[in-house]
């Protein structure tokens, strides 16, 4: 697969690789139905972006190859990882905060609702989901708010899965899923009332590229709210361990380069957004950390289904998945590279946990922004309105004062005329 494939070629390749129509069932059914040669080519293609194993000696050339081929690299990543993600995590590919008594899927949905609340989404609004995955959050936010959600994604397989699930739950008229690059969005300027992104824009080679496109497609006055994957200020690039962990996250999650929170915030401002709030939701005193399922921490599971989710990340759970996937690969039912994919994802889990524990990394740097030009205009107009209102009030008051004064004068004049007439008549009476 090359980075210059047309949309038609991409779709044809995806159909051949995943056998779209045939694909159904769990992970094992899905991986055994892939085109074996195509799948192992994609695995090899992804691996060629990560040749240098030592993060300290990684060359600028290698990093540049990832940045300039980000669509090809990310597409390859999701072509091999999507089925594993759904098997291990469900249909919403993101993290969240966890509270005692709240199940895994409730917590995932709450994280989506929280974002919808930041955007003040109302029924009938047109909302964009940047990097929508297989559409889990888009469906949830559509049902939660009554808005119309457009999901943008560059991976045909994920779009296919998102569309299929939308039809299954009867949301095909309230959602649509569009193939496209978020660095060159296939939408007119000022199309959406609100835009959100959940742990997706970190696949961009340069944050200004994707944030700038959001700014362009957002209607004046619209809001952009998103959870960004970032390294924190604790990350020290001269520390070998930090570099190993962060590079592990990049490698095992299909990310060209992770940026610091301050870089993301500045990128947002650089493209013209006014930042309403910026908050690292991972920095809190929650009793349960965002990465607990990846630790395989069964003690934190809240219901029977949570046990299954967390079990997959225990040592024994990983051993079982490896044995099944590896076994099927050995006997030729699953494509070569399936086991390697599982191993890559295990690295993802381990490095995310390490990064989370040390506070080097956050998957939930929540930024909310609005466009400054429009806000300035609104504030200026409001100022003019208040000024004119107050001015008009003062003028009316003055006029009222004047007319009151005139009235009083007239009344006084009348009184003085009456009194002089009266005194004249008294005088005449006296004379009598
Ligand atoms: C890559 C980005 C930007 C977001 C995805 C976040 C998460 C949904 C994934 C990050 C690491 C993934 C792993 C799995 C599921 C999806 C993630 C949590 C597995 C649990 C899938 C099943 C495998 O056997 C183990 C995986 C570990 C990593």
From TrEMBL:
> What metabolic or biological pathway is this protein involved in?
Steroid metabolism
- Name the Pfam families for this protein: Methyltransf_11, Sterol_MT_C
This protein's UniProt keywords: Lipid biosynthesis, Lipid metabolism, Membrane, Methyltransferase, S-adenosyl-L-methionine, Steroid biosynthesis, Steroid metabolism, Sterol biosynthesis, Sterol metabolism, Transferase, Transmembrane, Transmembrane helix
Q: Which residues cross the membrane?
A: 377-396
SUPFAM superfamilies, per database record = S-adenosyl-L-methionine-dependent methyltransferases
Q: Which GO terms describe its molecular function?
A: sterol 24-C-methyltransferase activity
All copies of the SAM-dependent methyltransferase Erg6/SMT-type domain together span: 77-372
Q: Which GO terms describe its cellular component?
A: endoplasmic reticulum
Entries under InterPro entries matching the protein? Erg6_SMT_methyltransf, Methyltransf_11, MeTrfase_SMT, SAM-dependent_MTases_sf, Sterol_MeTrfase_C
Q: Could you tell me which CDD domains the record lists for this protein?
A: AdoMet_MTases
Query: What is the superkingdom listed in this entry's lineage?
Result: Eukaryota
Enzyme Commission numbers on file: 2.1.1.-
Q: Which GO terms describe its biological process?
A: ergosterol biosynthetic process; methylation
Q: Of which family is this protein a member?
A: Belongs to the class I-like SAM-binding methyltransferase superfamily. Erg6/SMT family.
Protein name per Swiss-Prot or TrEMBL: Sterol 24-C-methyltransferase
Organism classification: Eukaryota, Fungi, Fungi incertae sedis, Mucoromycota, Glomeromycotina
